[in-house]
Amino acid sequence: MSELPTYIRLGFGHITAIGAIDHVLFLLALAAIYRPADWRKALWVVSAFTVGHSITLALAVAGVAILPAAVIEFLIPVTIVATCIENILVRERETAPLRGRYRPMLAGAFGLVHGAGFANYLRDLFASDIAVPLLGFNIGIELGQIVVLVLAGIALLMTDAVIRSFAQVNLRSALRLRTMAVSAIVLVVAAGWAFERRPW
């Protein structure tokens, strides 16, 4: 088990490194619609994403599901674009299909794609025993996600304050403006990546 801290650091470093900006932007897109009062809904979504990427990471690293790296690298920004489009199109979540409760399922499905991306990074780092590397890497990924989401939450709250100050709108309107602005910016960036990484 002495390797465990090494793989925890590896997972943490992977999700917080500049090279993982696509995963960070996906988390930002997921978080863009939430306020602090919505923490339970956000927790369900992030947990579903965690389950999704953990499943694919385990399957891919174990050699059960080997997916072409080029396809995965293309699909990762596609998941970001889809999340941003959902953010922009769904104005009233209480009147959305299933009252917006489909969002954890969406995050879980997209997590499967991101897990395959993590696996491509991890697969060559060990020879046979995958239990400790998988456990450590996943713990590191989760710790990194927590840091990213806390920082994103602070940035989003600051954005709300700026919007309310300059636009003179209520909290609900500020949240909608913030969701639209963040999602539009992230969508443009991710769409550019998807175009660059297209496998055809």
Structure characteristics:
76% helix; mainly alpha; 200 residues; globular; 7 helices; single chain; 0% strand
- How many separate domains? 1
Shape: globular
Termini, distance in Å? 43 Å
Poorly predicted runs of 5 or more residues:
none
- How many strand segments? 0
Task: Provide the structure class.
Answer: mainly alpha
Helix segment count?
7
Overall pLDDT, averaged?
Answer: 88
The Rg value, from CA coordinates, equals 17 Å
Order of helices and strands: HHHHHHH
Helix content: over 70%
The largest sheet, given as strand count, sense and whether it forms a barrel, is: none
- Which percent band covers the strand fraction? under 5%
Architecture overview:
The chain is mostly helical. It has one domain. 76% of the residues lie in helices and 0% in strands. Helix 2 crosses helix 6, helix 2 runs antiparallel to helix 7 and helix 3 runs parallel beside helix 5. The N and C termini lie far apart (43 Å).
Task: Summarize, please.
This protein is mainly alpha-helical and 200 residues long. Helices cover 76% and strands 0% of the residues.
What's the topology here?
Layout: H1 4-16, H2 21-31, H3 39-61, H4 69-89, H5 103-122, H6 131-167, H7 171-197
Helix pairs in contact: 1-6, 2-4, 2-6, 2-7, 3-5, 4-5, 4-7, 6-7
